[in-house]
Specification:
By secondary structure, the chain is mostly helical. 76% of the residues lie in helices and 3% in strands. The chain has 16 helices and 3 strands. It has a 3-stranded antiparallel beta sheet with strand order 1-2-3. A hairpin with a 2-residue loop joins strand 1 and strand 2. 36% of the residues are buried.
């Protein structure tokens, strides 16, 4: 009975005295944040697109239905990506880079032109914006490069410049579309990742300086970009020309006030504000839900970014450098693209055609962003599984060590009794030997030995 209770207490201690195991094999909070952003996107895109959808297609829910289909596709893509182990991304990231270059080159050859920009590949009824998968594939390659060439990146200039050469090739292909916004986001993410990887400060500042000078040159030598910058600096100088879109967006923000005009009550979406359901969806959200609504969306995205950085930090602590760098890049990517989108619609930054992550209308953006969230979930899942497996191995070792003496309890008891008797007998024999030395009479020696043995047997009988 005592052995059984001891075994139960040992098993209880092995299970409950160890570090607390996670309740879920995935980060449920990250899933809820992503679903919340998708839900907000459905509501705002539906509200913002109804007037233009009714005029263009005779169906006010045309864009809402398409957005719903995109969300279903994004969720399915996320489920598929979630099944891929991180080993897949570690092995295939160089090939993914070639795929990104191939997609961007194909856009220039056979792409579809919309509003003066050639950014889309049409494959039957499916239209793909090649820049979206190119961003994810480049970040995966960059994370792999930092793992393979970590010492070169942190110790000499050659290793630091190599990934910038790859970025230059992608940037050139993107600028030929043209798509400066994606180039800026990729550049900012590259800088942030190199900085977090431990690049030297002088290299970091030199890269920032060169990048800023390149962006300024690209703006100055392109007339339409220069007009965007001048209209951004003073949109009211030409409110019905170059500054029209920004002035209408600022009116939407102004009408929103603290709590907004109410869902569906926006005036700027009545075709006063162009691209209200894509690049300027945040302006409509601000008008209908006010400052509180904008703050809620920003809070959700910030929470997701913090989660991504936390997962990356945890992966680096566990020796998973590739996973950590990829999680870092996704967090920087989400944060900077959000800043550019909202900054452009609020007049803080020049206008750029970038979507709001998981909120704006756009199939390619939704699918790739959902895949990026799935990668974060997969990294976190593998970290949790590794922790549980290590914990289980430790528990098994502890339980084996604790249960070993109890195995064959009756035999163990008999064996321990025999061993103790043998030890006691040896002690008694030693006492007898001492008595032999001290006393010369053989009769006394025999009596003393017999008495000692009988006394020990009686003592054991009393204990039993």
């Amino acid at each position: 009975m005592m052995l059984a209770s001891t075994k139960l207490s040992q098993l209880f201690a092995a299970r409950h005295d160890s570090p607390k195991q996670p309740k879920h094999p995935y980060d449920a909070t990250l899933v809820l944040i992503a679903l919340a952003l998708l839900s907000i996107g459905v509501v705002i895109v539906t509200s913002a697109s109804m007037p233009v959808a009714d005029r263009l297609h005779g169906n006010p829910f045309y864009f809402a239905i398409r957005h719903g289909i995109y969300i279903v596709g994004a969720i399915l893509a996320a489920i598929v990506v979630l099944q891929l182990p991180m080993q897949f991304w570690r092995v295939t990231n160089p090939y993914l880079l070639f795929a990104a270059i191939g997609l961007l080159a194909a856009v220039l050859l056979v792409g579809r032109t919309v509003n003066g920009s050639t950014r889309w590949l049409a494959i039957g009824p499916i239209t793909i914006q090649a820049a979206e998968p190119a961003k994810l594939f480049f970040f995966a390659y960059l994370a792999g490069y930092l793992v393979r060439r970590y010492e070169e990146v942190t110790e000499n200039l050659k290793g630091f410049i190599k990934p910038l050469g790859v970025f230059f090739v992608l940037a050139l292909l993107l600028l030929l579309q043209p798509d400066l916004g994606t180039v800026v986001v990729m550049f900012a993410t590259t800088i942030g990742l190199l900085f977090l990887a431990g690049a030297r400060l002088w290299q970091f500042f030199a890269l920032v300086f060169v990048g800023l000078m390149a962006v300024v040159a690209l703006i100055v030598f392109e007339e339409y970009r220069l007009k965007r910058v001048t209209s951004f600096l003073d949109p009211w100088a030409d409110p019905f020309g170059a500054g029209y879109q920004l002035t209408q967006s600022l009116m939407a923000y102004g009408r929103g006030n603290w709590f907004g005009q109410g869902l569906g009550n926006s005036l700027q979406k009545l075709e006063f504000l162009p691209e209200a359901h894509t690049d300027f969806v945040m302006a409509i959200l601000a008008e209908e839900l006010g400052f509180v609504g904008v703050l809620a969306v920003l809070g959700l995205i910030l929470w997701m970014v913090i989660k991504a950085l936390h997962i990356g930090n945890h992966a680096l602590e566990r020796g998973r450098a590739f996973d950590g760098f990829l999680a870092y890049s996704i967090g920087i990517w989400f944060s900077f693209q959000t800043a550019v989108n909202i900054g452009a619609s609020a007049g803080v930054l020049p206008t750029k055609g970038l979507t709001l992550p998981l909120v704006s209308y756009g199939g390619s953006s939704l699918i790739i962003m959902a895949a990026a969230v799935a990668i974060l979930l997969r990294i976190d899942f593998e970290l949790r599984v590794d922790g549980v497996q290590a914990l289980d191995r430790g528990e098994k070792r502890k339980s084996k060590a604790a249960v070993k003496p109890a195995k064959g309890s009756e035999q163990a008891t008999v064996a321990s009794g025999v061993k103790s008797k043998q030890k006691d007998t040896k002690v008694d024999i030693a006492k007898v030997d001492n008595a032999k030395v001290e006393n010369a009479k053989p009769e006394d020696e025999g009596k003393a030995g017999i008495k000692a043995i009988l006394a020990r047997v009686a003592e054991e009988a009393d204990n039993d």
